[in-house]
């Protein structure tokens, strides 16, 4: 079975990315390992008193993101594709590459923005970094408005 890592950010194009990954997984008899990387500084704010940490803000944000991740997993499972998910805090590129290695990924599936001809804007800096440093192929799906 082909292992596909699918990073999601819950942006407005996530649904298109998931649909493309589902089609890809069906063609290859693959399973999807869904990952969302949350920033490590979710609960921090800068105010008059400098940096402050609010653990309840971090907990609420993580809880909401986990609900969203579970919903995406259920949509993938509804297509008869094996799926599991991980929500982890950290640096996106490094965390995704570690997850891909841990899951023996055959592919990482990412989306492009399709806004202009400038590479960083067109593909995105995370996708660019993954395609540069990933030991496995990175499939970039075109995401349109």
UniProtKB/TrEMBL annotation:
Coiled-coil residues: none
Cell location: Cytoplasm
UspA domain mapped to chain residues: 3-142
Pfam families the UniProt entry points to: Usp
Annotated Gene3D superfamilies: HUPs (3.40.50.620)
Keyword Cytoplasm: yes
Chief location of this protein within or outside the cell: cytoplasm
The keyword Cytoplasm belongs to this UniProt entry's keyword annotation: yes
UniProt keyword list: Cytoplasm
GO CC annotations, alphabetized: cytoplasm
Record-stated family: Belongs to the universal stress protein A family.
Protein's recorded name: Universal stress protein
Source organism of the structure: Chryseobacterium indologenes
Organism classification: Bacteria, Pseudomonadati, Bacteroidota, Flavobacteriia, Flavobacteriales
